[in-house]
Amino acid sequence: MKSKKAIRSLLFVSVLSLLSVNSYGIFDSANKSAIKRQNRIKAANSQEVVLNVYNSEDYIAEEDKDDNGNVISKGVIKEFEDYRKEEKGINVRVSYSCFDTRENRLSQLKMGSEYDLVCASDYIIEKRIKDNLVVPFETNEEFASDSYSSTPNYKNYASPFIKEKLSKIKREDKNGNPIEGDFNQYARDYRWGTLGILYNPEFKKLSQRHITPEERDKDRKDWASLWDEKYEKRVSIKDSRRDTYAAGILYTYENDFTLDGVEEEGFKTLQKKYNDGEYTSDEYNEKFSRLFNLCDDTTIANVEANLKTLRDNAYGFEVDSGKTDRAKGQYFAINLAWSGDATWARSQADEFNEEHRENYPNDTEFEPVTLKYTIPTLGGNIWADCWARPKAVEKRGNKELAQSFVDFISSPDIAEENRDWIGYTPAIGSDTILDYLQENYGDVRYEESEDGEIEYHPENLDNYTIVDADQIDSLTDEEKESSVYKRDVSYFFKGTLDEYSEEDCIFYLPVSEKDRRFDASYPEESLLPSLAIRNDYGTQNDKITQRWRRVKNKFLPTWIYVLVLVLLLAGIGLWIYSVMYKRIKQKERHDRKKQRQLIQKQRIKEVEKNKKEEKRLTKKRKVEEKKN
Predict the structure, then answer these.
(1) Residues 6 or more apart in contact with residue 531 via CB below 8 angstroms
(2) pLDDT attached to residue 111
(3) What is the DSSP letter of 380?
(4) How would you class 299 by CB atoms within 10 Å of its CB: exposed for 0-12, middle for 13-18, buried for 19 or more?
(5) Angle at which helices 76-83 and 399-409 pack, to 10 degrees?
(6) What are the backbone dihedrals phi and psi of residue 553, each rounded to the nearest 5 degrees, phi first?
């Protein structure tokens, strides 16, 4: 009896507790809503504060609508404005501008523009730090005691791997003297990626040259394949001196060489010694980075000579058009590309393929465009686009507001929204981004249910054979259909996760996805020691620019220039003759017209005179007749 009474009492207390918790939740929610309403009213009655932001085109999530025109996402800019109004009661308007080239980005940081926040490449910020034109997020003392404290979301969720890479960027003054502190004090990474090769292994015109898809996959593992004559006029290279110089130096110093009388180890030797255990990963990366960033006069001349050869082998130069042409399978088969563009092009290619199937269901000869992206095994470039605050932010009093914007877009939810819109890889880790990868990047253990939810089915892995990535090329088509390869991206996510563990960072992908979206977004961990940040070239920038112009402007034999000059002078002479001839003819026509008009007037006068004379005679005759 007592036990039943105790149970009833316990149940009663439990119900009261649940009601109390639920009531508190309702009250708390209502209280938050009331605070937001009060803050919105406060913001509406306060003076507007303008935050000037400068970024690349198509580099932030914008307003999105469904097929019926209904807004399903306000876009990150509007979301930040609403956030500041509702959470802080501050009336903020973001004046958002876009640039088209990195040079424009550089000039805005250099000229002390009115921008509070600029998204710039790592080397541009490095250069502007030298010029003392960037405001740090933290002082040396603040960064040493509590690094990244001004941007808590970035502190908690930005990948330690990215932070460590950026910390290796040199900080020097104009005279090359080291500056105390860390590059990360001045920059918050937004997007990162690599430079590699985007290609279509099924490109028809390469089959006409009897180059098999397997051969193309193998060739793309070597930077030298860009120079291979069998791909003549089927390669496009970036109209970017830094990116193309990077490919050039990897080709130029592939093997051991002598520089100014000193024997130097080439990239292949460095890699072999690392693989043999002679160098640690840090030692190897340090030596790789030094070699990758050489820009002395001799190196610049050597790279220029090789880039001229590449130019003659290439279809042409491109910046943004290449990814669209590549997605459609047009013009060329191989493209020197950024990893983010490769991801975008791959998605576009899939859309073009699907659209063609829908519009031409009976086209049995259609061959879909299949794009792959790879970083050659020798290594390459890793880059970061970061947010920095120009000096104008102090004058305008927007330091706190600018770092608030950076912290807002560093939150996992906003990072995911940007990731879905842009395609480029965010610097943010977190459970949210890991969820996004699990749901969208093809792990065979994740399936979409009938109600649209993503469900985890670890038993699916029993239906596949797990193979090493290096074995994929040797598999038969039948074996590929039932095989998966393993990817571990814990190197990027560790230190950013709340509920997930590093074991959850392991993915099992169909072998058909090798060198596609996942691999383009997150390079294999084994390749990381052979990825280097490109430093600012300092006093050698102008020389590299001049050499690059010479690469782009292909020189011709003297007789061709003479012939062009003769034709030009002949053309000018012909134009002058045609103008003079036209004027002479116009004058002749004018004179003839004037003569005709004069004759016409004379005739009219004669007619009028004759009429008057006839009238006079008629009148005279009538008078005489009357007299008679």
Answers:
(1) 194, 285, 375, 379, 380, 381, 382, 523
(2) 47
(3) E
(4) buried
(5) 120
(6) -95, 95
Q: At what angle do helices 241-252 and 281-292 cross, to 10 degrees?
A: 120
* Per-residue model confidence (pLDDT) at position 324: 65
- Cβ atoms within 10 Å, residue 319: 14
In the block, residue with structure tokens 């000018």: 572
- For the segment 566-591, what is each residue's pLDDT rounded down to a tens digit? 888 888 888 887 778 777 877 777 77
Residue 444 has what pLDDT?
96
SS3 101: coil
3-state SS track over 330-365: CCCCEEEEEHHHHHHHHHHHHHHHHHHHHHCCCCCC
Please name every residue paired with 531 in a beta bridge, in sequence order, or none if there are none: 380
- The two tokens of residue 498 are 């709340």
CA 280 to chain centre: 33
Strands, E assignment, 239-321: 257-259, 262-264, 316-318
Contact between 337 and 323 under an 8 Å Cβ cutoff? The reply is yes
Q: Please state whether beta strands 71-73 and 334-338 pair in parallel, antiparallel, or not at all (unpaired).
A: unpaired
Residue with tokens 């007749």: 625
pLDDT score for 10: 44
d(CA 322, CA 330): 9
Give the tokens for residue 401.
């507001």
Question: Any bridge partners for residue 373, and if so which?
Answer: 198
For 300, phi then psi, to 5°, come to: -60, -45
Cα–Cα nearest to 505, from 489, 519, 524: 489
Structure token digits, residue 520: 């383009």
pLDDT at 510: 96
Sign of the C-alpha dihedral, residues 222, 227, 233, 238? positive
Q: By the 8 A CB rule, do 378 and 222 touch?
A: yes
Cα–Cα distance measured from residue 221 to residue 197, given in angstroms and rounded to the nearest whole number: 9
Those residues of the chain that have pLDDT short of 70 are 1-30, 100-113, 319-331, 555-562, 593, 596-597, 600, 604, 607, 611, 628
Tokens of 108: 């805005």
d(CA 109, CA 439): 39
Kind and range of the H or E run holding 372: strand 372-374
Cα separation, 191 vs 193, whole angstroms: 7
CA distances from 383 to 189, 243, 258, 499 (A): 10, 10, 29, 29
Please tell me whether residue 291 adopts helix, strand or coil conformation: helix
Instruction: At 290, list the tokens.
Output: 């030094």
For residue 232, the model assigns a pLDDT of: 93
Residues facing residue 10 across a β-bridge:
none
| Rounded Cα–Cα distance for residues 157 and 439 (Å) | 20
Q: d(Cα 574, Cα 580) in Å, to the nearest integer?
A: 10
Cα–Cα distance list, 517 to 427, 504, 512 (Å): 17, 19, 11
**DSSP 3-state assignment of 66?**
coil
Six-digit token string for 528: 């990381």
Cα 532 to Cα 509: distance, rounded to the nearest angstrom: 27
Asked if 254 contacts 268 with a C-beta cutoff of 8 angstroms, the reply is: yes
pLDDT in tens, 112-135: 568 999 999 999 999 999 888 999
